[in-house]
């Protein structure tokens, strides 16, 4: 049996398996196999903390490599553009032959590579991100390779994001073999899409990472516990899967503690499950919900706490008006902001519900402290 743990709840870790996102990965694979400029090659992923954005990007990077692309997975920040170029040079070098011939369209001695995908001093110092990325794409294209860009933790009002997005649009227009995935919090992606210079991103495929279906969680737990030698009966397995409520981070946390509290060959009993769930929820509160709700105003929190009274059931807008003692217009303004933030949704007209599993019960717990 491998010493690598099967459940890895730390943020940024790659899980043993991506659960319940097979349709997303298949759509992305179809896009990579399609034509340059395909909508499935431009993907925007939104999701709150703990919904598996980073893990999904890791899996998509592997899918791109298998499809004949050189992936560059980076985090949004001041050095992002340099990180993209550095990553493509490092990962793409094995696919190109050493040559000193300048790139087509540029004069010899003015722009080119000294060896592999290493730029000449003149090219490195004289040209910007757009020219360098185009050069690398062309060189890799000669080797039968495309370029896949994957950006995590997208930030609004970011000059590197503006440069990257506009460069991508230009390269697609030139029919360069390139694809892009950008992931971020719902409110952030919404703000990015509202920027005048980036409105073309509205044509990209948008994926909102919601809860994982409970049957998918159950099937994964059944297989995972069997692999690591833990016995679990069907009723306990059902309760474990339902307790996750489709939250990927909680799936990992609960599985981690179930393994911690048992040894190989043990049965996962109801008391053990209850103990593991208590530990997982305590960690979930500290690592996810506190950070998720910190940017909200007091009025936002009052609105969410008023919703939490319904204990997981949809909240009627009329009930919110009465509980908060406010007008319909007041409720509608907060409703819109919290929907844009990816915290609540409107499953039916006149109703609101939490998007994030366990958020309502967390608010109830925190109100009682």
Q: Keywords, please?
A:
369 residues, alpha/beta, Rossmann fold, Arc Repressor Mutant, subunit A, 5-stranded parallel sheet, 3-stranded antiparallel sheet, globular
Polypeptide structure, described:
It is a single chain. The chain has helices at 22-33, 53-66, 80-92, 121-126, 129-142, 159-173, 186-194, 214-227, 234-244, 248-260, 270-293, 298-308, 317-324, 328-340, 359-368; strands spanning 42-46, 69-75, 113-115, 118-119, 146-152, 178-184, 205-208, 315-316, 344-345, 351-354. With 369 residues, it is α/β, with parallel strands linked by helices. The protein is globular. Helix 1 (22-33) packs parallel to helix 2, helix 8 crosses helix 9 (234-244) and helix 10 packs across helix 11. The longest helix has 24 residues, at 270-293. The chain has 15 helices and ten strands. Helix content is 51%, strand content 12%.
Blueprint of the fold:
Layout: H1 22-33, E1 42-46, H2 53-66, E2 69-75, H3 80-92, E3 113-115, E4 118-119, H4 121-126, H5 129-142, E5 146-152, H6 159-173, E6 178-184, H7 186-194, E7 205-208, H8 214-227, H9 234-244, H10 248-260, H11 270-293, H12 298-308, E8 315-316, H13 317-324, H14 328-340, E9 344-345, E10 351-354, H15 359-368
Parallel strand pairs: 1-6, 1-7, 2-5, 5-6
Antiparallel strand pairs: 3-4, 8-10, 9-10
Helix pairs in contact: 1-2, 3-5, 8-9, 10-11, 12-15
Name of the CATH architecture of the largest domain: 3-Layer(aba) Sandwich
Major beta-sheet overview? 5 strands, parallel
How many domains is the backbone divided into? 3
Helix content: 40-55%
Please provide the count of β strands: 10
